[in-house]
Design a protein that fits this description.
Layout lengths: L4 H5 L5 H10 L5 E9 L2 E6 L2 E7 L1 H6 L12 E8 L2 E7 L5 E5 L7 E6 L3 E7 L6 H13 L3 E7 L6 H13 L6 E3 L8 H7 L5 E6 L5 H9 L22 E5 L5 E4 L12 H7 L1 H7 L16 H7 L5 H30 L2 H13 L1
Parallel strand pairs: 3-5, 8-9, 8-11, 9-10, 11-13
Antiparallel strand pairs: 1-2, 1-4, 1-12, 2-3, 4-5, 6-7, 12-13
Helix pairs in contact: 4-8, 11-12
Bound molecules: guanosine-5'-triphosphate, magnesium ion and zinc ion.
Guanosine-5'-triphosphate binds next to helix 7.
Length: about 350
Amino acid sequence: MEISPMELSKLGLDPWFQEQAVELCQPEQRIARVTAVDRGWYVVRNEEGEVPARATGRFLNATGSTMDMPCVGDWVCVHYDSADSASIHTVLPRKSFLHRKSAGKNIEYQMIAANIDVAFIVQSCHYDFNVARLERYLVMAKEGHVEPLLVLTKTDLVSTDELEQLILQIRRGGISTRIIGLSNVTGSGLDQIKGLMGPGKTYCLLGSSGVGKSTLINRLTGQDTLKTRTVSDSGEGRHTTVRRQLVVLDQGAMFVDTPGMREFGLFGASEGIGECFDDILELSLSCRFTNCSHTNEPGCAVVQAIAGGKLQSEHYGNYVKLKKESELNETAYTEKRKKAKTGGKVGQSAIKKSNKQK
Ligand SMILES: Nc1nc2c(ncn2[C@@H]2O[C@H](COP(=O)(O)OP(=O)(O)OP(=O)(O)O)[C@@H](O)[C@H]2O)c(=O)[nH]1
Ligand SMILES: [Mg+2]
Ligand SMILES: [Zn+2]
């Protein structure tokens, strides 16, 4: 297999991925990065450019979970079938990822992007601001080993005072992640964002529809690379971006644009929750009882901290909520997997048993 490490390093290839490729790609295959995903179709990019690609039947057959399907940012072993089509044979292991619970009742992971260095968690100062939702995104990023950054957009629509109040609210919520205020209209904050970007690094934009994610990428590329909403600015209604896509900037940094998400669930996110709420975990070490539920036990350090104003009750409430949600969904997912493996028998009886215990 041929690799041009110099050229591919511009797309983020490093020695670790190279090693994986040498081990996992066949001699007639080459390594490429997935730059777009759209309902079963992919676009892959290597040093020579982008071509549309399909996953091979054999790959699809061998893939048990949606998590193992190629997603934007993945490094893959591809076979170039012709000058303008390729087939994906293998997805290389991921260094980091962003995933969520898929929409609706279906308990399944949905990959958002892979091999991301920094997640820009974007909220608008104007209508979209919500600290609990920020925390939810933070858990998602930490869970996938992605460094988070908070971006508050549309600062042109609020006063300096209002912006300061919003930042204060975030800090009071116990969030210490770096925050950048941005106006895509006046360009304020843009230099700070440019200052963070490095060649070969991959950034992912996350946030509700209408907060200005695609507009930011257009500001950075200096042209209308991506479609943005032009008519109404209320933030409600339809999504402008409909697919996940990786854009390579002239400066060498890469951005993954995603369709806006309003609601999303978490599961199996105990690691991410632990990191985002480490203040609460630290406090709970001082509770008198090791199995303290932080409700009415004597000598509970968490309850004391809330009473003493050292811990925000909203922050704690959100911790309890996310933890419970993540654990419940995790249980349902494990049951579903078990059921799939045993043709339903064990899963069913386990569910009945747990119902009886209630
Ligand atoms: N006033 C103001 N308007 C902005 C700013 N950034 C974006 N907008 C406007 O907000 C609207 C939505 O911007 P988009 O970039 O399409 O939003 P998005 O986050 O990509 O939305 P989805 O693709 O639906 O997820 C457009 O009309 C933009 O012109 C900003 O900083 N200030
Ligand atoms: Mg968009
Ligand atoms: Zn306690």
